[in-house]
Amino acid sequence: MLPVSVHARRRLKVKINQLIPVRKRIFIGLLSASILCAGLILAGIWHLALNPHRTFWDQVLLLGLAGILLGGLVVAAFGIGGMVVTILYARDITVLHGPMHVAINIFFPVALALGRVFNIDQDRIKSSFIEVNNYLVRSKALKLFPEQVLLLAPHCLQKSNCPHKITTDVDNCQRCGGCVVCDLLDLRDRYGIKVGMATGGTLARKYVREYHPRAIVAIACERDLTSGIQDSDSIPVLGVTNERPFGPCFNTCIRVSVVEEAVRFFLKDQTGWPERPG
After folding, report:
1. Which of 39, 49, 64, 88 lies 20 to 30 Å from 219 when distance is taken between CA atoms?
2. Tens of pLDDT, residues 88-117
3. Chain segment 12-46, per-residue pLDDT in tens
4. Measured in whole angstroms, how far is the alpha carbon of residue 190 from the centre of its chain?
């Protein structure tokens, strides 16, 4: 029989795997490691500042830098704690939105750099970030009208040999069924949401300015989804990673059922909608 401590550790490991799946733990773990690295840098700055051979102004400058870094570390630590608590209890913690934003925007590039050091695939890290983001968004209680939801999709979902280009007008699609664009338009017609087919970040931002959505369902590769989620500011984004059987940006595809489920999340509890604005 194994010692009780070993059984306890195994049960704890199983519980952690159930509560925070591996894909989420990659991003949160690297983010935590990034803060640890920043803490080591802070310790080094503090050591230099206390060196008696430093001039007074050098010490003042180093202590000021250490104070700024310490403040950022404390805020980011609260942000990571907020992510973990939100994932564990599936509850939105409004007061920690700011710290979570700071943790992601400041330390995400460091997390990617650490991923390279440990030979972790960059798309895997970004996919983990998307999973964490989606979980945070799903913890919110949202009750939106269909016209307040924007579905952003990449133009590469359209077959490359199709003569009917849809980036200027999505209704140029002839709905022949040769690609999933037809299915996305069916979702638009069924639920009344807005749809934009974008060639890149510039056109995607144009759709956001034009439609003023309260929520976005975005389809893209890991790289574009990551940058788009970070650029969205206060607009909640559910990211759906596309499938690329022929390589990036060429005849990509998507599971429409996953996209529909994301759309329905923002439109759930329709009986609780407030009166429509005039």
Report:
1. 88
2. 877 888 888 889 988 888 889 999 999 999
3. 444 444 444 446 789 999 999 999 998 998 888 88
4. 27
Q: How far apart (Å, rounded) are the C-alpha atoms in residues 90 and 88?
A: 6
Angular region, 155: left φ>0, alpha ψ -120 to 50, beta rest: alpha
Separation between Cα atoms, residue 268 and residue 259, nearest integer Å: 14
Of 41-50, 113-122, 237-246, minimum mean pLDDT range: 41-50
Bridge-based pairing state of the strands 237-241 and 215-220: parallel
Task: Give CA–CA dist 236/30, Å, rounded.
Answer: 23
- pLDDT at position 138 over 80: yes
Map out the domains of the chain with their CATH numbers: 4-136 (no CATH), 143-272 (3.40.50)
SS3 state at 154? strand
| H runs (alpha helix) in the chain | 4-19, 22-49, 56-89, 97-117, 122-138, 181-191, 201-211, 222-231, 256-266
Q: Report which DSSP code applies to 150.
A: E
